[in-house]
Amino acid sequence: MTTQYSRHLLLFCFAWLLLWGAGPALAADSTAAQEPVAKAYKEIQKLAAETTDANVMVESMDAVLARLVNYDAFARRTLKGTWRTLTSRQRKRFKKAFKALILKTYARRFKPGASFEVTWRGEPRFLDEAQASAEVRSTVSGEKAAADVDYIMARDKNVWRAHDIIVDEVSMAMNWRKQFKGIIEKSGFNSLVERIEKKVKK
Predict the structure, then answer these.
(1) Under DSSP, is residue 80 helix (H, G, I), strand (E, B) or coil?
(2) Which among 14, 67, 144, 145 is least buried, having the fewest CB atoms inside 10 angstroms?
(3) Number of separate domains in the chain
(4) What's the start-to-end Cα distance of the chain, in Å?
């Protein structure tokens, strides 16, 4: 009777640890998705404070986004359905142009010499049962305007990186997917890449 009681007690303790002991770990893991975004913001704030030329700031932000954004995953997400039909050469050319487009689109929201503040709209939330993707929600407030900037983060080998950026509820990947699909259907893939290349050079 004593042995059976001890077993029941051990099972109860084990179940309690699984239920309650996992809580902080999950919360910490969720918060980890926010860390690379917070780090990028701090680096951009420093660049904005030290830089006076817009072109120089964009070039400097290239390294910041390279650490934050998974450009390969972003490209696949944007060209969903079309991506698998492309050759390796076409993919390489698209990723080069697309990376420049993301950089220019994102960087133009931050001006040299202009300060901004970042607030978090709650803790990151997991988007799947495997807890391999999460949404990080932030609000960037400048001197004249504010915008909600959210990041769809995915964990690749324990490193969280952005696969999509959502500005005021508009997903970059989804918005571009619709535009790009129309151009491909009407004029072809090469025409799409040429348009992106011309746009980023303006």
Answers:
(1) coil
(2) 144
(3) 1
(4) 82
Say if 160 falls within a structural domain: yes
pLDDT tens digits, residue range 3-59?
Answer: 554 454 444 444 434 434 444 434 447 899 999 999 999 999 999 999 989 888 888
Task: Quote the pTM value.
Answer: 0.82
Q: Cα separation of 47 and 57, whole Å?
A: 7
Nearest alpha carbon to residue 202 among 44, 58, 45, 51: 58
Q: State the residue range of the domain holding 75.
A: 33-201
Residue 26 half-sphere exposure, CB side, CA atoms within 13 Å? Answer: 11
6 within a domain of the structure (yes/no): no
State how far the Cα of 5 lies from the Cα of 24, in Å rounded to an integer: 30
The residue behind tokens 């952005």 is 162
Dist. CA 122–CA 191, nearest whole Å = 42
Query: pLDDT tens for residues 55-80?
Result: 888 889 999 999 999 999 999 999 99
Is residue 21 in some structural domain?
no
At which residue do the structure tokens 């239920």 appear?
19
For position 95, which CATH number holds? 3.10.450.710
pLDDT in tens, 160-188: 999 999 999 999 999 999 999 999 999 99
* CA atoms of 32 and 26, how far apart (whole Å): 10
Q: Is residue 10 assigned to a domain?
A: no
